[in-house]
Amino acid sequence: MARIKNIELPNEKHTCIGLTAIYGIGRSLANTICDNANVDRTKKIKDLTEEEIAKLRSEIDKYEVEGDLRRETQMSIKNKMEINCYQGIRHKKGLPVRGQRTSRNARTRKGKGKVVANKKKVGK
């Protein structure tokens, strides 16, 4: 079982897919890392040798991933909230940040729908 950046990589997946379990590594970066480390992309992670895993580790160390990337992202969000820029205000209110409409959707950011009480209609 390969362990890189304190993440257990899934054994049954190909190398280029398994690397995407690490935060900050997508498909294209995983392919680049495999090419630079001279590791076959289609080889399963359980079949990798210790030498190949070491090559992958040294190649991944060149990029900012996992804890460092998460920390940097959180710091930039906090900075925007402190300086009260538009995006920071949207983060504070829990609304979509990147210009999406909120009248219809935005349930991911706004949370579950809130019930609004209706006034009873007076019958004639």
Strand order of the largest sheet: 1-2
Q: How would you state the average pLDDT, rounded?
A: 91
* Estimated share of beta-strand residues: under 5%
Query: What best-fitting shape do the alpha-carbon axes yield?
Result: elongated
- Rg from Cα: 23 Å
What structural class results from the helix and strand content? Answer: mainly alpha
Residues in helix, %: 40-55%
CATH topology title of the largest domain: Helicase, Ruva Protein, domain 3
Order of helices and strands: EEHHHHHH
Number of domains: 2
The total strand number stands at 2
The end-to-end distance, rounded to whole angstroms, is 75 Å
Unreliable parts:
none
The CATH class of the largest domain, by name, is Mainly Alpha
CATH architecture of the largest domain: Orthogonal Bundle
How would you characterize the largest beta sheet?
2 strands, antiparallel
Describe the structure in your own words.
The chain is mostly helical. The protein has two domains: 3-60, Helicase, Ruva Protein, domain 3, CATH 1.10.8; 69-110, 30s ribosomal protein s13, domain 2 (Irregular). Helix content is 44%, strand content 3%. It contains six helices and two strands, in the order E-E-H-H-H-H-H-H. It has helices at 15-18, 27-36, 50-60, 66-82, 86-93, 107-110; strands at residues 3-4, 7-8. The protein has a two-stranded antiparallel sheet with strand order 1-2. It is elongated and about 85 Å long.
